[in-house]
Amino acid sequence: MQLLDGKKTAKAILNTIKIDVAQRAATGKKVPHLAAILVGTNGASQTYVNSKVKTCNDIGFISTLIEYEEDVSEMRLLDKIQELNEDISVDGILVQLPLPPHISEEKVIEAIAVSKDVDGFHPENMGKMIMSEDAFIPATPYGIMLLLEHNNIQTKGKHAVVLGRSHIVGRPISILLSNNSNPGNCTVTVCHSKTENLEEICKQADIIVAAIGRPEFLKAEMVKEGAVVIDVGITRLEDATKKSGYRLAGDVDFEHVAPKCAFITPVPGGVGPMTIAALMKNTYKSCVDRD
Question: I need a surface site. Which of 37, 96, 121, 181 has the fewest CB within 10 A?
Answer without folding.
Answer: 181
